[in-house]
Specification:
Blueprint: E1 2-3, H1 10-15, E2 20-25, E3 31-34, H2 36-42, H3 46-51, E4 69-76, E5 82-94, E6 97-106, H4 114-147, H5 149-203, E7 209-212, H6 213-227, E8 233-237, E9 242-245, H7 247-264, E10 271-280, E11 283-290, H8 322-332, E12 337-341, E13 347-351
Parallel strand pairs: 1-5, 8-10
Antiparallel strand pairs: 2-3, 2-6, 4-5, 5-6, 7-9, 10-11, 11-13, 12-13
Length: 360
């Protein structure tokens, strides 16, 4: 079955249907469409619902395979009210992509059996654990941003004071030790900043709107050239690349990917960095490529792991957090990110954005 918004029967079948219905991508789980009945049932506005992650409605395991499936589950509305629902999953093709059309029917409450009691208790326990995890994350963020920064500033400040006031007494070796301490505190401060960026990328509110990615890429390239004017790097930035995304987060995403390309091509005599888009199987894919150091694809699975580096620190500086932040930003937009590379032959980072792409 193919659902197309341009079909004459689409509105009657889906939009105006009194039954609550929504469509989600079969692979990523991101929401593609929702009708008015479902919005009334769950209590969300359309824009809010389409930005949700599937798990936000409750613990759901989408069916695999191409057959219909009916499951009963406990979900939650926007105000936290419990919804006992029967979900009918039907495989469809929506806007050229594999999807599930889901019919959500409310189950009238009856005598609670042992299975329902267990399910209710499990959901309640999971919500308590989730709320506790959020509180711990907020406490950690506060600790990192306040409690850890002050000691680092003291270590760095007193080390520099010793260098200035007692450098001659300490001698060359003593000065070298203090210089290394200052460098280490600077590195630690960078790691703290990177971890905070990772936390913020996962917690900030998404405000998707039309964004000109080409303009943002151009600005980032000019900033990099201004920062290191001695480098000769050729940029090829496609014009008119647009998407619907959160402007701040997508700017950060491009800063990370283009910044990585700039860094890892620093030892290439004729460095070249490209940004553009392509279409594959009806999906719009964005990319940033370079002709720099590259990496072995055997380690590609670890590329987006926090603090994991594929190059030694003395080869290329970095915190090892950037690509983890990039993955979190892309995932929050309902997209995916991956890489293709070979040692000495550069690298290409591909990503999609689950928010609706904007045509040129």
């Amino acid at each position: 079955m193919a659902l197309q918004e341009s079909d004459a029967g689409y509105r009657e079948l889906f939009e105006e249907n009194p039954e609550a219905m929504w469509v989600c991508h079969r692979d990523t789980g991101r929401f593609l469409a929702v009708n008015e009945a479902a919005l009334r049932l769950y209590g969300y506005r359309r824009s809010q619902f389409l930005e949700l992650e599937l798990a936000r409605l409750g613990p759901i395991e989408p069916p695999t395979g191409g057959k219909d499936q009916v499951v009963s589950c406990l979900q939650r509305s926007q105000d936290g009210a419990e919804l006992q629902l029967q979900l009918t999953w039907h495989p469809v093709t929506f806007q050229g992509e594999p999807a599930h059309l889901v019919l959500a029917r409310r189950i009238e409450p009856g005598p609670e059996g042992p299975d329902q009691a267990v399910l209710r208790r499990q959901v309640a326990e999971q919500l308590v654990q989730l709320e506790a995890a959020h509180r711990e994350l907020e406490a950690f963020s506060y600790s990192v941003s306040h409690d850890l920064r002050a000691p680092l500033r003291h270590i760095d400040g007193f080390s520099r004071a010793l260098l200035d006031d007692y450098g001659e007494v300490l001698g060359n070796q003593g000065q070298e030790y203090l210089t290394r301490i200052c460098l280490a505190t600077g590195k630690m401060a960078q790691l703290i900043d990177a971890v905070l960026q990772l936390v913020r990328a996962g917690r900030s509110e998404l405000e998707p709107r039309e964004v000109d990615l080409s303009v943002k890429a151009q600005v980032i390239s000019l900033e990099l050239k201004h920062k290191e004017p001695e480098r000769r790097v050729e940029f090829e930035i496609a014009e008119g690349v647009r998407a619907e995304a959160d402007p701040k987060l997508v700017r950060q995403l491009l800063e990370i990917l283009i910044g990585n390309a700039w860094k890892f091509s620093s030892k290439t005599p004729e460095a070249r960095i490209r940004f553009g888009q392509k279409e594959e199987n009806g999906e719009r894919i964005y990319f940033v490529s370079d002709n720099g150091a590259g990496f072995d694809m055997a380690y590609a699975e670890k590329l987006f792991t926090v603090f994991h580096r594929l190059h030694r620190a003395d080869e290329f500086e970095g915190s090892g957090v950037g690509l983890a932040i990039a993955q979190r930003i892309v995932t929050r937009h309902g997209g995916r990110i991956w890489a293709e590379s070979a040692p000495g032959q550069g690298a290409t980072l591909y990503f999609t954005l689950g928010c609706k792409s904007v045509d040129n």
